[in-house]
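Support request, please re-run this one:
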Amino acid sequence: MATHSDIEENDTKRASQLREERARKHLKSRRNREWRFRLWGRAAILFALSALAWLLFSIVGTGFTAFQQNFMTLDVKLEASIIAPDGTRDPQKLRGANYRRVLQDTMYDLFPDVTERLEKRELFALTSASGATHQIRQMVYKNPSLIGQTVTVTVPTSDQVDQLLKGYIDRTQPESRRKVSDQQITWIGTLKERGIIKKKFNTILFTKPDSRDPELAGIAGAVVGSMMIVVIAFLFALPIGVGSALYLDEFAPKNRWTDLIEININNLAAVPSIVFGLLGLAIFINFMGLHRSIPLVGGMVLALRAFPTIVVATRASLRSVGPGIVNGALSLGASHTQAVFQQKLPLAAPGILTGSIIAMAQVLGETAPLLMIGMVAFVTEVPQSAMDPSTALPVQIFLWSDSAERAWSERTAAAIIVLLLILVVMNGLAIWLRNRLEKRR
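Re-run finished. Output below.
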């Protein structure tokens, strides 16, 4: 017969077993939750990487063909009876000569059997008329002695021919649904067999400014304008931003006004960029009277955009330096200003420089502020100074993306690739400078 002590001992064992079972269940449940959390985390990373890969693939897949373009090599007869019928070599008359007819005669000589007017028009449409005539005009204007000779020129084909040869125009569709006729396709095939049409590296994309014709449009003006804007923004934002951060962290009294300034600077970093465009429009253009669409105004507007980012990065870098550095300098007799500028600031320089370059990379991709100050203008010249009309690469991408022709989509994606490469280089430079300066410490 079980005693009272045996019953208590059994109850204690059962209670202990129940606690152990509940603990095992709880531990298993916790491990399952942790496993699910890791699974969801990996799935989120995989989804983000997949979205990024899809984005890059779509951009590169659309734009890589723009780095090559089809050109025609033509033997052009610069007949004096057309270019200079009066025998003079006056530069103004040479500029206004009928170079279009010279190019037409060259194209007609390739297919002498083409006699009807409509067929001649279709044949002439195979080449980029405006680009080719401009190129021939410049050759004659710079060297009038070429008149009467036969010169070999390489000119771009029309955008429709280029798209056809790149496979973006379906030849199997009915002729009524294509912008290239069956007869033109036959001529293009003949010119390819003769070696007159060849695909080459597209130097136009990198050496020419914007154009109404997609086969002649380049990003040279936009890239130069963007570089000017970034340099101007850097020269304005860096000293003001670093100086403001130094004053707030090291010299400003700690009171409600300082706290208010710090809060507003932090809030400025989250303000939509178009607000800075409105501010620049009101101050630099309407009040100061500066011209629209110039890199100087664009740089100052984007300096306002980069200012809070540089202040925040600088303050974080200054606070990462231990207080012992300043205290040690003060104990050796240095003034507070000397301790800050000679000891603390050099140690914080890697973080400040990294944050500043990242801020410049951020403003390089801004579009809305530049639209507000008129940098959406159609500019056909590469700017030579900060006071010349210009555009920026993001704005150029915005303008091209609004065009309907297929060739503009190709150019838009190519410009995006160039912009991404510039951003990668700038971020890589920031990391390299930070590592190099940290090693010197």
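The longest helix spans residues 4-63. The beta strands are 68-77, 150-156, 197-201.
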